[in-house]
């Protein structure tokens, strides 16, 4: 769901041009807002049939050495069920042959930003809740797999759970339940599930409760469910849409 393709083919010139233009627009919006840390989301695939727009999110911080904005997010290795935490520039965030180049900036309250930035600055903290076994449709309340949005959401619990030491994924998920986090439910029939499991290494359903799965209900962490949760636990959070730049725009 992060992007549309998974191949070794070189990126198309127009895709590279649009990615750099989109990165410039996002950078300008971040420069205007000047957050210590923010969450950014992109539109990888057309998810409109599920009532969703954004598919993938990550964190963004300014590199103190270069003064440039850098993302930190979980990415799935192409064609595998493995993942890693990547740190890269804004242009790379848009270089996955996306369905749309609109993006979203989510800025938590200043107090929360300070705590999130501290967690992201310490590998021992941001890797503590990382599981390299990737599953695009990982169940939000299981630890067998993890996807990009799930890692980001669980990392946020380390910052927001003030009086609790969130040092395991089980604790993070318990806190999410206690705080009323509600995942997004996709209605996937048996043929969709079978096709995904047979033909994609990064899709599995065996971590989902049988009663939900056999009722064609697949619960996952989405950008939408995460933003709704942030509105609930951190009402000072702001949301800014950065439109896709026009085709004639020129990046810096």
Number of strands: 8
What is the overall number of helices?
9
Low-confidence stretches: 1-5, 191-199
Termini gap: 28 Å
SS-derived structural category: alpha+beta
Describe the sheet with the most strands. Answer: 6 strands, antiparallel
Task: Describe the model.
The protein is α+β, with helices and mostly antiparallel strands and 252 residues long. It has one domain. It contains nine helices and eight strands. The chain has helices spanning 13-33, 90-93, 110-120, 123-126, 148-160, 169-178, 190-199, 210-213, 223-233; strands at residues 38-43, 56-62, 69-76, 83-89, 100-107, 184-187, 217-220, 238-242. The strands form two sheets. It has a six-stranded antiparallel beta sheet with strand order 4-3-2-1-5-8. A two-stranded antiparallel sheet has the order 6-7. Strand 3 (69-76) and strand 4 (83-89) form a beta hairpin. Helix 3 packs across helix 5. The radius of gyration is 18 Å and the shape is globular. The protein starts with 12 loop residues before the first helix and ends in a 10-residue tail after the last strand.
Please give a quick description of this structure.
By secondary structure, the chain is an alpha+beta fold. The protein has nine helices and eight strands.
Structure characteristics:
19% strand; globular; 252 residues; disordered N terminus; six-stranded antiparallel β-sheet; single chain
């Amino acid at each position: 769901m992060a992007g549309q393709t998974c191949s070794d083919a070189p990126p198309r010139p127009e895709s590279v041009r649009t990615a750099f233009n989109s990165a410039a627009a996002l950078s300008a919006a971040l420069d205007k807002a000047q957050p210590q840390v923010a969450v950014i989301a992109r539109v990888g695939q057309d998810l409109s049939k599920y009532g969703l727009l954004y598919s993938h999110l990550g964190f963004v911080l300014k590199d103190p050495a270069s003064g440039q904005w850098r993302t930190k997010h979980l990415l799935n290795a192409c064609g595998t069920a493995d993942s890693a935490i990547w740190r890269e520039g804004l242009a790379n965030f848009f270089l996955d042959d996306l369905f749309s180049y609109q993006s979203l900036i989510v800025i938590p309250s200043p107090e929360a930003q300070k705590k999130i930035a501290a967690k992201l600055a310490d590998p021992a903290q941001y890797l503590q809740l990382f599981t390299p076994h990737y599953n695009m449709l990982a169940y939000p309340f299981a630890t067998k797999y993890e996807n990009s949005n799930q890692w980001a959401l669980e990392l946020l619990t380390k910052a927001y759970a003030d009086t609790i030491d969130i040092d395991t994924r089980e604790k993070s998920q318990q806190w999410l339940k206690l705080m009323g986090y509600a995942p997004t439910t996709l209605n996937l029939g048996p043929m969709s599930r079978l096709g995904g499991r047979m033909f994609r290494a990064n899709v599995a359903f065996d971590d989902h409760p049988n009663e939900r799965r056999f009722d064609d209900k697949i619960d996952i962490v989405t950008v939408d469910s995460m933003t709704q949760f942030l509105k609930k636990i951190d009402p000072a959070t702001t949301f800014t849409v950065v439109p896709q730049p026009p085709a004639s725009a020129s990046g810096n």
